[in-house]
Structures are given as C-alpha cells and as structure tokens.
C-alpha cells in the first residue's frame, strides 16, 4: 500500500460537487503522476494526474477521488 502524501492547495476546480483539479503554488514541487495524496481541507484519498497551467496561468493538477 502506498503512503498518501499531503498536498496544500490554493484552489479547486469542482464538477458536480466532486474535485476534478486543484490549484497549487508554482513554487511547490510537482506531485508525481499516478501517486496518491490527501488534499488538505478535503476528505478522502486522491490519485494524482497530469499537471498543467490553466488559462489564468495557475498551476493545476488533475485528481481523481479513490475513496
């Protein structure tokens, strides 16, 4: 079983009350893709997806809730 890292987020993108992506600080390390994480302020464990910059220039990470 993998240990979930904790990620501090500065914003979220939600669809139908589920988190689809989180905004992280540009200075924070990029979380490894396909790793698992706990997002501070939100319950559950999430799988980390691709990292990208949105149209506002914010660094985003796609996430999928596992449980």
In short:
The protein is mainly beta. Helix content is 0%, strand content 51%.
Key descriptive features of the protein:
six-stranded mixed beta sheet, mainly beta, 67 residues, 0% helix, single chain
Word description of this protein:
The protein is mostly beta strands and 67 residues long. It contains no helices and six strands. Helix content is 0%, strand content 51%. It starts with a strand and ends with a strand.
Write down how many β-strands occur, each being a DSSP E stretch of 2 or more residues: 6
How large a portion of the residues is in β-strands, by DSSP E? over 45%
Oligomer description: single chain
Rounded mean pLDDT is: 91
The SSE string, one letter per element, is EEEEEE
Helical residue percent band = under 10%
* Span between termini: 14 Å
Low-confidence stretches: none
* Number of helices, counting only DSSP H or I runs of 4 residues or more: 0
- Largest sheet entry: 6 strands, mixed
Overall shape: globular
Question: What's the gyration radius in Å?
Answer: 11 Å
Could you give the topology of this structure?
Blueprint (H helix, E strand, L loop, with lengths): L4 E3 L3 E5 L2 E7 L11 E4 L6 E8 L5 E7 L2
Parallel strand pairs: 1-4
Antiparallel strand pairs: 2-3, 3-6, 4-5, 5-6
């Amino acid at each position: 079983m993998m240990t979930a890292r904790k990620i501090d987020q500065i914003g979220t993108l939600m669809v139908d009350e589920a988190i689809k992506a989180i905004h992280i600080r540009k200075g924070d390390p990029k979380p490894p893709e396909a790793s698992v994480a706990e997002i501070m302020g939100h319950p559950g464990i999430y799988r980390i997806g691709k990292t990208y910059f949105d149209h506002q220039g914010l660094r985003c990470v796609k996430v999928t809730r596992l449980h």
